[in-house]
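Handout for the seminar on molecular recognition.
Each group receives one record of this type.
Step one: identify the two inputs.
Step two: read the structure output and locate the region that could contact thymidine-5'-diphosphate.
Step three: write two sentences on what you found, then compare them with the reference statements printed after the record.
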Amino acid sequence: MAGKQTVIVTGGSGFIGTNFVRLLVKSGGYRVVNLDALTYAANALSLVDLEGHPDYVFVKGSITDRELVSSLFAKYQPVGVFHLAAESHVDRSIVNAEDFVQTNVVGTYTMLESARAYWKGLSDEKKHSFRFLHVSTDEVFGSLGETGYFNEETPYAPNSPYSASKASSDHFVRAFHHTYGLPTIITNCSNNYGPYQFPEKMIPLMIMNALSGKPLPVYGDGMNVRDWLYVEDHCKAVKLAFEKGQPGDVYTIGGNNEQKNIDVVNQICVILDDIAPPVEIPQLREQGLKSYRELIRFVTDRPGHDRRYAIDSTRIRRELGWRAEVGFEAGLRRTIEWYLSNPDWVDRASGGSFGEWIQKNYAWRAEESK
Ligand code: NAD
Ligand code: TYD
């Protein structure tokens, strides 16, 4: 364990958390204590490869539990915190924002108070190097028109209950730095995609629906724009900001990859048509499907749907030398292949019968490649 730095990661069993915890542990420099409540968004299969690893500890519990959180600081004496735990889906927040307020606002406040109490008691040297890194979203800035980019100076203007709760948590983080000197860093990132994303978010939802021959529901006119970033690139940025950023710093992070939703859905269909053509899958052939694009349906728009997000990442590129490494077409292909190769994970996530489906409809691929 010598030389390894112990950190607390919250939400390490979610989409970004899973990719992030694996990156930290595999880097060889960290011992990770993952505090996660294992809500619907977590998946017990996501980190099985790290079970029993000497540099990985899992703690099931909520970030709103002050006693538990404080006991973890006391027990593990971390050099810092990566705070990822959150309720993260806009559509759910529109239906009911209660959990968003509890986890994103109260939970972040609880993490900050516990961190502050622990930090106050550290030696000057450890106090100086401690970091509380808060992972946030570009959605706190509201919506862009046809032009312009979000950057570190953009005023907050959250439009959804989700983004309002994240904005609130960002403000608490900022205030704890300003008022108490807690060494915090905030990262505001654009939409992530990649392996382990719960299939309620657009990209995995479209992949899963397509493979089951179900409609692909595109909200409104499909012209809303998101700046997609491959999840591993985001994780590397967060690690870099923790290691090299200064207290009080904020970084906006994006893929420089603006895509209209309808174009993303079309690209998913093109890749699927190539690697899992419907005419070669009995269930979809019987449905008469020739291309997954035939499944696209325009549906009622999301209330308050933000039109466009786009990030200017100049600061993190210039100051920390970060850049996105995975191009969109390659990242999307990698993501689709991951979902096809991990039916057990998808079954757990969807509570469904994807594993069975793969066995029945897709097994010929495994046979073919033998
Ligand atoms: P996710 O929903 O996939 O995972 C969230 C994780 O937090 C889950 O493992 C869940 O069990 C855990 N959690 C929820 N409530 C908890 C609580 N009270 N106590 C402890 N753990 C709890 O989310 P994600 O997409 O991985 O996002 C992670 C973070 O990154 C969030 O803070 C989100 O706002 C932010 N973010 C996400 C994106 C994106 O595109 N997904 C983009 C920018 C920022
Ligand atoms: P989502 O993945 O929910 O992320 P966010 O709302 O945080 O950006 O949605 C991405 C975009 O895709 C967003 O503009 C809404 C749209 N969308 C659809 O068109 N259909 C869907 O079924 C979903 C879930 C999202």
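Reference statements: The first strand starts at residue 5 and ends at 10. The first helix runs from residue 15 to 27.
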